[in-house]
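LOG
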Amino acid sequence: MRINVVLIDYENVQPDAMAIIHGEHFKVMVFVGSNQSKVSFEVASSLQKMGDRAEYIKINGNGPNALDFHIAYYIGLIAAKTPDAYFHIISKDSGFDPLVAHLKTQKIFACRSPSINEIPSVKAENANTSGDKIDVIVVDLKRRGTSRPRAVKTLTSTINSIFQKKLPAQEVELLVEGLKKKGLIKINGEKVSYSLPA
């Protein structure tokens, strides 16, 4: 399974739902500002349980983007060693978005989420209703831009991957039908076209 590296901008986001990323495929790095002297018990306790899959990085020095540059540095360092890793920057700071866009042009999997609960794989794992699952699929399809699946077979395979190949084939077919009924996709023969919300 692909390693998911979660890089938390602790100056910007203080998560309280760390237990949902305890899976073996997650590695967590908490970036703490030079002026921050405390980390919540929830975060410290959760990271301790993860052992060597979690670490703190205390920033030396101040500056408007000091922490952001540290996150960018570590993404580059890890991507060089583990090119198929998926990087999740946890921050409300949209200043990371150009970095994420650039990483994608370099074929490095990355996204920014405002909270741990918004990590795509976490959302997919916690989606229970078909409506929740369709929302997760739409977010994934929008993120793909022009790389969206153009054939029904590829779309089915993509949906299967989003949900870690845990859904029965019949449910995947129902999700495709749900996308169709909501007017989010059109199927012509084996070809798929999209009408996703902006």
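LOG (cont.) second protein
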Amino acid sequence: MSLLQITKWNYERNGLQHNQELEELLWAEESKEFRKEVENYLSNPLNKLEVVAAMIKEFCDCNFVYYGNIMRQLGNTKVVDRNFEISLMNTLLTEILI
């Protein structure tokens, strides 16, 4: 999913309003699910392909939550480094222009 799609989804969901408590809960949930799949990968040598597919899915979920959170916090340089923000802005504009 592209940054533009993530931003659009978050805009439609709540107008890009930031809720720190919700962001932390979402991140905790998604990162724990990714960790669980990493542990499955390390402990289960027979179903590697299925586990890798699950890891990729959880990684995508983590990215979705992370980038949605960042887009809702643009301009809050206490949370996000300005170089990262400008890179994100560049990516978003590039996607829009393409």
